[in-house]
Amino acid sequence: MKEQVETRELKEGRYVIIDGEPCIIKSIAKSKPGKHGAAKARVDAVGIFDGQKRSIVQPVTAKIYVPIVERKSGQVLTIGDTSAQLMDNSDYSTIDVPITEEDRSKLEEGKEVSYLLVMGRTKMDMR
């Protein structure tokens, strides 16, 4: 579900867990080491599920958790008011994925779509 890496290994566009919420990294700023301290990194990220901005500042040698994100595809079976039911293309299981009003207008029954599976939660990937 998650693994630990050093802050210096993070890159923009990858994922990180901040305040227990999986986020996508938007920017990383690294400072030089000072006379009495180690180099620091400021990571600015946006939550995958809630869209909330989060940031964290810590030494570049500190460990941080990174979620394991699985990108899967499935076929839309039914479209409800707040969720869509998908059949996974690899193991043919059915999954209920929450959708927004914007996603709902783009979906069609029988159409193939991709979705993210992160820390036991799912999200429609409408790129």
Condensed summary:
It is built from 1 helix and 11 strands. The protein has 127 residues and is mostly beta strands.
Describe this structure in words.
- By secondary structure, the protein is mainly beta.
- It is built from 1 helix and 11 strands; from the N terminus they run βββββββββαββ.
- The strands form 3 sheets. Strands 9-8-7-10-11 form a 5-stranded antiparallel sheet, with no helix packed on it. The chain has a 4-stranded antiparallel sheet with strand order 2-3-4-5, with no helix packed on it. Strands 1-6 form a two-stranded antiparallel sheet.
- A hairpin with a 2-residue loop joins β10 and β11 (about 120-125).
- The chain is elongated.
- The two termini are about 25 Å apart.
- The relative contact order is 0.20.
- The mean pLDDT is about 90.
Helix-strand pattern, N to C?
EEEEEEEEEHEE
The average pLDDT is 90
Unreliable stretches (pLDDT < 50, length at least 5) are none
Amount of helix: under 10%
Radius of gyration equals 18 Å
Shape: elongated
> What's the count of strands?
11
Pfam family, one: eIF-5a
Modified residues (Hypusine): 35
GO molecular function: translation initiation factor activity
Protein name: Translation initiation factor 5A
Tell me the layout of helices and strands.
Layout: E1 2-6, E2 15-18, E3 21-30, E4 40-47, E5 53-59, E6 63-67, E7 69-79, E8 83-88, E9 94-98, H1 101-106, E10 112-118, E11 121-125
Antiparallel strand pairs: 1-6, 2-3, 3-4, 4-5, 7-8, 7-10, 8-9, 10-11
